[in-house]
Design brief:
The structure holds two protein chains of two kinds. Helices cover 76% and strands 0% of the residues of chain A. The N terminus of chain A is likely disordered. In chain A, helix 1 packs antiparallel against helix 3 and helix 5 packs antiparallel against helix 7. The two termini of chain A are 36 Å apart. By secondary structure, chain A is mainly α. Chain B contains three helices and no strands. Chain B is extended. The longest helix of chain B has 34 residues. About 24% of the residues of chain B have low confidence. Chain B is mostly helical. Classes of the chains: A mainly alpha, B mainly alpha.
Chain lengths: 172, 112
């Protein structure tokens, strides 16, 4: 989300990368409740709300800038990206609220009992499948950023550690 | 303070959307078919004596359900994760790869 609108410092980009990795791994775990177990699925999903909020906060400048310029002249890819991000937000909200409505562990643990309906269960499944597709497109549209940032903040620093001729203990 | 305000805006949008979804589902009527609150749970499996009755429940099914409610299953998790990564990878290959190729082709000098 670095094009069209936001200027990121190195620290901000690094934070974005780690938050994105965290959200992605949490998403993969929560997408499979049979594997992780229902308790991890529910608690991790609820905590993802905080991680996603941080993700939006870190990209706040981009969001506000494109919201302001949406009807003006902006690149078509940026427009597609913006709409896709809104769809992700709406779908994420649907997953969260339907998950809360069918919660079997987290909400009862907090002493909250909600009437359960079949519709929420189906909505939860459908919105989760849709989220996987939307996230696939979102990842693909940001692939260059992902590759560049991984290279800059993970692969290159790790590569330097093992590069010949670089002494780790050299006096500074 | 600015960050707090932004968090408030994000949460407000979340709550607003959630409220609209709850209203929409309740208004459509499908959300009221509850099986909680003492209402009898509908039976999906054929009753005894009906055609197609399962004489026994396969072990795998019980384990599967137990895995969902209980501690989970490492093999299921690994399989699920790989499956989801493959789906996301598919989109990356289909969308990002052609874009990258087109960019490279644009950059390459045109032979005269």
């Amino acid at each position: 989300m670095t094009n069209d609108g936001s200027k990121n410092t190195g620290n901000q980009t690094r934070s974005k990368l780690w938050v994105d990795i965290l959200v992605f791994v949490a998403f993969l775990i929560t997408m499979d409740p049979r594997g992780s177990g229902l308790a991890i699925h529910e608690w991790l999903s609820l905590s993802m709300l905080a991680a996603v909020t941080v993700h939006v906060l870190l990209n706040w400048d981009w969001v506000t800038e494109i919201t302001r310029r949406f009807l003006a002249k902006i690149g078509s890819l940026t427009r597609v990206n913006y709409i896709l991000n809104w769809l992700l937000f709406i779908d994420g909200t649907l997953i969260m609220i339907s998950g809360i409505m069918i919660s079997e562990i987290a909400l009862p643990y907090l002493g909250i009992q909600l009437p359960r309906g079949f519709a929420w269960r189906r909505l939860h499944d459908m919105s989760a499948n849709l989220m996987l597709l939307l996230l696939g497109v979102h990842t693909a549209l940001h692939w260059n950023w992902i590759v560049n940032t991984f290279n800059r903040y993970i692969f290159q620093p790790v590569g330097r550690l093992f590069a010949p001729g670089v002494k780790k203990d050299a006096p500074q | 303070m600015k960050t707090l305000g932004r968090i408030f805006i994000i949460l407000f949008a979340f709550v607003l959307l959630s409220g609209l979804m709850v209203i929409a589902v309740n208004a459509s009527g499908v959300g009221t078919q509850a099986f909680g609150d003492g209402a009898p749970r509908p039976e999906f499996r054929p009753q005894a004596g009906e055609q197609g009755e399962l004489q026994f429940r396969p072990e795998g099914e019980r384990q599967e359900r137990g895995g969902e409610r209980g501690g989970g299953n490492g093999a299921f998790m690994l399989f699920g994760m790989i499956k989801n990564i493959v789906v996301i990878g598919f989109f990356v290959v289909v969308i990002a790869w052609p874009r990258s190729l087109a960019k490279k082709a644009k950059r390459a000098p045109v032979a005269s």
